[in-house]
User: Fold this.
Amino acid sequence: MPRFPLALASVLLLSACSGGSHAKSGSPTPVPAVSAAAGGLDASGILSQFTAAGLPVGAVDVYTAASDPTHLLGRRHEYTSKANFIDTGHGGQAAGSRIEVANGGSIEVFASAADANARGRFVTDVPPGASRVAEADFTSGNVLMRLGPKVSFGEERLYMDALTKLTHAPVLQVIQVAATPRP
Assistant:
């Protein structure tokens, strides 16, 4: 029997047994912290580039494994870096409070564009009757950018243009999330 089919069958069998499940486990699977699709930049680096381009990025909250309230940082198929920011063109936020998307926006960098798109769909898929804050979400390459309700359409375009220059990828997904009344 030729060795090639046997070797191929062995490789396929080993890869089938290696996992590949999208189920969440108790411990994070390490993933690269930066990606070439974002020009080798992490979320903080992207926001630094936004500032250098003249966008009104103020205070920044860079997530760590310890500070991520959802514990998604570094998990398989989740963001490899995340930072929320205040858009200074729309006022600030109380000192010492966590910076929220509603006060500016968020940058989430993923290992792949597919992971960024999946996260974008998840963030906007709010069950009927659940409260949500209005925001506009955009993916470009492996980056998900979430902009709060105070950022105007014209300002969104400026952020989108800056992001596409960094990722060298078009905006593939634009999702408008309408606010629902809170009980």
Q: What stands out?
A: The two ends are 70 Å apart (CA to CA). The mean pLDDT is 76.
